[in-house]
Amino acid sequence: MNLLLFIQATAEEMPVDELAEGAEKSMNYMEMAKAGGLIMIPLVLLSFVAVYIFIERYLAIRRATKEDAGFMNKIKDYIHDGKIESALALCQSHDFPVSRMIEKGITRIGRPLNDVNTAIENVGNLEISRLEKSLPTLATVAGGAPMIGFLGTVIGMVKAFFDMANAGNNIDVQLLSSGIYTAMVTTVTGLVVGIVAYFAYNILVAKVEKVVFKMEARTMEFMDLLNEPAH
């Protein structure tokens, strides 16, 4: 409270022309980032990590959602006609999770249906694990960046009070600005990185869930195909 009162009193004592000159200065973001101190380094690195993971996973999940519209119809026709090798070749010619799951199921045709379903589910779990790769890291960035920012806030305020204690009666705003800059800049940066990573994480999770739903639907469709009575 004493610090805030001092800053307010100092601002009131400044000449009008100095206040006007300060108001005309534009905010230099590079200088503000430098004022954040060493805490800005991990925050910047975390921001790059978050952006990289989001772009890489977004493209990977997008590729996984692509599926030939007539894929399952062709599989049904091949199996009905007894063309197991053709069905396997069709699965191998497509590169997405559903095709690999169906391929595993086709290789188990002739065994008990529970064994077929288990084999498909095992492949599905592996595919989901691949899709979710790096998502825990993104979640860690979302939670860790604000905490690092708050650490910078504490360090900045400690520095400001340390400078104020050592200045004695010669306290001015210029003396305290370094610590206050560190406190505020790191807080803002940590929150921005954390918020962006949080939204990115939830977007990717929602897309993975859509892929999982499609995989489950195709599994049920394939198992229903195997359960059809022979003609």
From TrEMBL:
Subcellular location: Cell membrane; Membrane
Membrane topology: Multi-pass membrane protein
Residue stretches spanning the membrane: 35-55, 138-158, 178-201
GO biological process: protein import
Residue ranges of domain MotA/TolQ/ExbB proton channel in the record: 97-216
Keywords in alphabetical order: Cell membrane, Membrane, Protein transport, Transmembrane, Transmembrane helix, Transport
Any single GO CC term annotated in Swiss-Prot or TrEMBL for this entry: plasma membrane
Domain of life the protein comes from: Bacteria
Family from the record: Belongs to the exbB/tolQ family.
Name recorded for this polypeptide: MotA/TolQ/ExbB proton channel family protein
Organism this protein belongs to: Carboxylicivirga sediminis
